[in-house]
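Quick one, tokens below:
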């Protein structure tokens, strides 16, 4: 065998370990300098390489007290040794060395022998090595581990279970109960562990249970405990291995998942209720309005109608809030001026906060129209102001600023373009970074039960994201908080959502295809539009609407349709109808749109959406508006 075919092992070997490598025929392949140093022949490698190793072994043997025994061992092991063999030899000067014989095999064929010489290690030393290795393994494992006697006395604990070194030594030989006493903790955790150990010893099987501990930060930590029997030779439980896996993070994630599923279910429920209510409210308000027109100004019966209209208006506001919460409200066709709404709201804010808080308002002139309705914007302002108030229990300054903001490059997760910035700044107690990262989570609150609901900022977040805006919070403990709400600037004309009932209804003419699956609403709208002079074709869903249109020979000026309907919805209907009657205008009526794709489609249509519930007056205005467009 060619000596060079072996890698040059051993040059990096520490001085006290020597390696001698022989081939199958007993020729020296390699020898580390340390071996040669032992035998007083440093740097004479070339004299031995490729020669029979017996010469080298002869030299090595002279170092040892029993020279003959050394050489006999070489012959014996080389001849018969099948397994690694380790023995301790004493040198002439009284030092001990350990000689290790390692037979080398390549499959079944013996390819050579490796001899290793090193400072002898006692059996105790080696046991210590192994123990250190196991301790290192235990310490590296993610779980907490302990070995206990059947009576619950600690024999071994990993640093992951007890971090403090002194405490970890202290507990050896002691029980959980003693530990609890020592640390002034309740005995319940210790009792549960004792009971589990008893079950393991008696049942001779693994016991599992979940444990709750109060963590250093005051929060609850969850652990999965496994108590595992360790059997002695006689089959009795000699020791118990306690294993603890920290489930806190998992539980937290589970909790969040449940929370978001709950929010989602609540959102669906709220959205569904609001949708049905919107139809009903449109009928109630519409009939009330129609009646109002029948009575003269002095008629006593108007006094009975006023509360009906007022109540239905408030109910409509409620459904709007439900929709904001469920984030199912469509992009508003209305836009409001932030400054105008702020002006109207400041008086209310002053009543909300105490006298010790000064409110300052700064508005930079410019265009401040944003795609929200007044109720939503007020909700944003009120929620932010209430939070600021809560943070300034002993007084301070609440500053509200409004300014146009032009983004020349994408920032805050928003595209470049024109925005309106609303900033609410307080001089309150501020919040930690940890709190700041959670504030938008529904039900996240740091306030005592009954005071905080944790829904304030999540509602604001819902409203702002529906309007395709962004929200950013900066805060420092003791230094106050600043909330920046950035909303896209709305270029559409501001539409007033509260037309005065005194103004004259807009009359018109032409054929309107009215599609609505709610019969009450359909009848109301049809009567109103007929009253204004329009001709009405009607249908209860998209499919029958297409049939009606196919049968009608004359022009159809407008398709006025609900969005969510059985069989075929408004979006699809509009698309199909436009294919055969491209000149027909489309106006959607809806309270919400479930499908974001549908919502996008509706937004694209320039005729837009008539938000339910609507007043008959607004209906007349929007219909006339759409038909009047060039
Ligand atoms: P709630 O006010 O019901 O607690 P919010 O969603 O409005 O719920 O706020 C969540 C948490 O955010 C509050 O409990 C509080 O810890 C923190 N927070 C919100 N606004 C402020 C603020 N202006 N200053 C300090 N902390 C605030
Ligand atoms: Mg709040």
């Amino acid at each position: 065998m060619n000596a060079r075919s072996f890698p040059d092992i051993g040059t990096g070997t520490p001085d006290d370990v020597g390696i001698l490598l022989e081939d199958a025929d007993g020729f020296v392949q390699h020898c580390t300098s340390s071996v040669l140093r032992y035998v007083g022949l440093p740097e004479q490698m070339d004299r031995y390489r490729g020669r029979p190793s017996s010469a080298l072994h002869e030299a090595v043997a002279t170092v040892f007290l029993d020279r003959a025994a050394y050489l006999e061992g070489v012959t014996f092991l080389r001849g018969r040794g099948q397994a690694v063999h380790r023995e301790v030899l004493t040198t002439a000067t009284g030092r001990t060395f350990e000689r290790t014989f390692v037979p080398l095999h390549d499959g079944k064929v013996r390819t050579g022998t490796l001899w290793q010489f090193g400072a002898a290690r006692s059996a105790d030393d080696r046991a210590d090595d192994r123990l250190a290795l196991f301790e290192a393994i235990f310490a590296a494992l993610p779980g907490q581990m302990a070995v206990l006697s059947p009576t619950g006395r600690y024999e071994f604990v990993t640093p992951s279970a007890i971090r403090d070194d002194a405490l970890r030594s202290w507990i050896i030989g002691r029980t959980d109960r003693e530990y609890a006493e020592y640390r002034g903790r309740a005995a319940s955790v210790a009792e549960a562990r004792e009971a589990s150990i008893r079950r393991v010893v008696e049942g001779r099987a693994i016991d599992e249970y979940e444990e709750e501990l109060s963590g250093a930060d005051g929060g609850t930590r969850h652990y999965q405990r496994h108590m595992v029997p360790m059997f002695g030779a006689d089959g009795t439980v000699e020791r118990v291995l306690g294993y603890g896996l920290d489930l806190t993070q998992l539980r937290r994630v589970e909790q969040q998942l449940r929370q978001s599923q709950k929010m989602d279910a609540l959102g669906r429920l709220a959205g569904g209720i609001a949708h049905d209510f919107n139809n009903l409210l449109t009928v109630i308000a519409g009939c009330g309005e129609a009646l109002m027109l029948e009575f003269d100004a002095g008629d006593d019966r108007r006094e009975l109608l006023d509360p009906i209209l007022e109540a239905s208006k408030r109910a409509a506001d409620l459904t709007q809030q439900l929709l904001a919460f469920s984030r199912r409200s469509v992009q508003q066709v209305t836009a409001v001026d932030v400054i105008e709404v702020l002006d109207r709201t400041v008086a209310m804010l002053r009543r909300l906060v105490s006298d010790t808080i000064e409110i300052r308002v700064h508005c930079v002139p410019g265009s401040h129209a944003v795609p929200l309705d007044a109720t939503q914007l007020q909700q944003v302002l009120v929620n932010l102001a209430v939070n600021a108030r809560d943070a300034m229990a002993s007084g301070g300054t609440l500053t509200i600023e409004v300014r146009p903001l032009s983004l020349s490059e994408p920032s805050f997760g928003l595209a470049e373009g024109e925005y309106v910035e609303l900033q609410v700044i307080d001089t309150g107690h501020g919040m930690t970074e940890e709190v700041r990262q959670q504030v938008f989570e529904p039900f996240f609150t740091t306030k005592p039960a009954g005071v905080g609901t944790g829904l304030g900022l999540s509602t604001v977040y819902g409203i702002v994201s529906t309007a395709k805006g962004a929200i950013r919070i900066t805060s420092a403990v003791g230094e106050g908080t600043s909330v920046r709400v950035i909303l896209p600037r709305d270029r559409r004309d501001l539409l007033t959502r509260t037309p005065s009932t005194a103004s004259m209804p807009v009359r018109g003419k032409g054929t309107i295809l009215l599609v609505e699956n709610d019969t009450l609403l359909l009848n109301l709208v049809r009567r109103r539009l007929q009253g204004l002079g329009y001709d009405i074709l009607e249908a209860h869903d998209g499919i029958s609407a297409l049939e009606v249109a196919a049968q009608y020979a004359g022009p159809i000026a407008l398709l006025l349709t609900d969005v969510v309907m059985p069989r075929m919805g408004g979006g699809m209907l509009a698309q199909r109808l436009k294919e055969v009657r491209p000149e027909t205008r489309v106006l959607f009526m809806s309270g919400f749109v479930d499908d974001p794709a549908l919502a996008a489609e509706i937004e694209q249509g320039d005729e837009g959406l008539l938000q339910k519930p609507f007043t008959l007056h607004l209906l007349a205005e929007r219909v006339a508006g759409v038909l009047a467009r060039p």
